[in-house]
Amino acid sequence: MISSADLPDTIPVFPLPGALLLPRARLPLHIFEPRYLAMFDDALKTPHRLIGMIQPREVPGGGERRLHAIGCAGRVTAFSETEDGRYMITLSGASRYRITREVSGFAPYLKAEVSWDGFARDLGPGEDDASFDRVRFLNLLRRFFASRDLATDWDSLKEAEDELLINSLSMLCPFSPEDKQALLEAPSLSTRRETLVTLIEFALRSGTDEETMQ
């Protein structure tokens, strides 16, 4: 576990649409672009080994892309290198953060000054969802997976802890980047579950399948 004292003021940030990382969850990443290979190498040289995942957002009225204000930092906890120099890495979600200023410099990747205020709960133990109706939720999820021709290990879902189940589905389900951002910014596990249910119900009503599984 990382403590609040270990959280730096400046971190490298990795803009990646649709790639959601949540506290205490794990995100596998394939690193191959030269700038992000440099980012990864530099992150390994720090005591905290943090990389900040962030969602880009499109600016209305133009093709310009900027970053959302809130992301989630993950600690590099595993990696392997391929023969051609690419990396397969695992980020373990540490805490959400708010970008206060993008930092200019000589690095080929983006850095930002960040604030961790308001996200102290992310560093604590896992959350429970006292009002979680698992049977109803799994029935809804079965309909959603059937409509998308998706398969899963239903026995594992039945046994998974509340936080692991809700956060894993939030990260893996085929939602738009803006929907993923709403899941990230949910202030509590129960709020995230309510948001997740709303997104699934909307997808079932719309009957569209524009997104694909990560």
UniProtKB/TrEMBL annotation:
Do you know which SMART domains this protein is assigned to? Answer: LON (SM00464)
Show where the Lon N-terminal domain sits. 11-204
Fetch the InterPro entries from UniProt: Lon_prtase_N (IPR003111), Lon_prtase_N_sf (IPR046336), PUA-like_sf (IPR015947)
Q: Which PANTHER family match?
A: ATP-DEPENDENT PROTEASE LA (LON) DOMAIN PROTEIN
> Any idea what this protein is called?
Lon N-terminal domain-containing protein
